[in-house]
Amino acid sequence: LKVAAASPRACAERDGVGSHSAVRLLSGAPAAPGAMHRRPALLAVAATLALAPSAARGDSVLTIVSHLKLTRDAVIELFEATAESMKEAGATEDAAQVHKWSDDWLSLLGFERGLTGLVKDFVANYYMRSNYHDKNRELVSAIRDVSVVFPKTPSSVNERRLQALRSSLLDVCEEGKRLFEAGGSLHTMLAELEDVIEERNLPHFTKGMQVNSNLPKLFDFLANPAPHKPADGAEL
After folding, report:
1. Does residue 18 contact residue 36 with C-beta atoms inside 8 Å?
2. 15-25 b/e with 16+ CB inside 10 Å = b?
3. Predicted confidence (pLDDT) at residue 60 exceeds the cutoff of 50
4. Plot region of 214 (φ>0 → left; ψ -120 to 50 → alpha; else → beta)
5. Residue 93 confidence (pLDDT) above 80
6. Predicted local confidence at residue 222, as pLDDT
7. In Å, how far from its chain's centre is CA 217?
8. What pLDDT is stored for residue 17 in this prediction?
9. To the nearest 10°, the Cα dihedral for 84, 90, 92, 97?
């Protein structure tokens, strides 16, 4: 693959992306002083992006994978419950669209779609490329905003909070589509997400979050403080 002239470490340090942390790599979110932060943008730019973005501490690789799985499980359950609520309300076309987005983009399988397709698109076309790293400031800012408005406790899940979350997610979609090439997996996923989070669907997403059995565990994870970075500055 043709890559930018800057070294991998230079790109990573500039964007706060540790070379061994897939979550931080995909989000491009810079680490806060004294801590390693990660935002599953693939599940929330993928992912990330799938209404469960997180600003959390850097742990072992196994812990990161465990929390990615938790996020994915929570989002899949959210979309299933949302689609069921839509069916009960007679919105069968909207329900089918929600199901399709979840099946297409949260699947572990696939070539152009699914998490594999999203990772492949990012790594092949954007990671360590100056045309991405030099222009992703607005996207990173939008992803941060999602983390800010994402509910941190079950009691904070309500339609008003979901309205703010939707607005922030739309900003991510807009900035991401400007940055990621049309026809690619990331651009397509964001364009389809815009259609899924139409304002008329918010009551169903709110209900889906309120009955989600995985969200309390995700809330606990998001609420945990970031530990101090090791004194020697070592990263994953």
Report:
1. yes
2. bbbbeebbbbb
3. yes
4. alpha
5. yes
6. 57
7. 17
8. 37
9. -60
Strand partners for 57: 37
CA pair distance 195, 101, nearest whole angstrom:
10
Amino acid letter, residue 78: L
Return d(Cα 5, Cα 7) in angstroms, integer.
6
Cβ neighbours of residue 47 under 8 Å, at least 6 residues apart? 40, 41, 53, 68, 71, 72, 75, 106, 115
Please, are residues 154 and 70 in contact by the beta-carbon 8 Å criterion? no
Strand partners of residue 47 = 43
Which SS3 state, helix, strand or coil, does residue 50 take? coil
Sign of CA dihedral 10, 11, 15, 18: negative
For range 147-165, the mean pLDDT:
85
Q: Tell me the backbone φ, ψ of residue 47, rounded to 5 degrees.
A: -125, -10
How does pLDDT run across 18-38, given as a tens digit for each residue? 333 333 333 344 434 433 333
- Top-confidence residue, 207 or 111: 207
State phi, psi for 46 to the nearest 5 degrees.
-140, -45
Which pair of tokens denotes residue 21? 């942390």
**Residue 201 · residue 93 · CB < 8 Å:** no
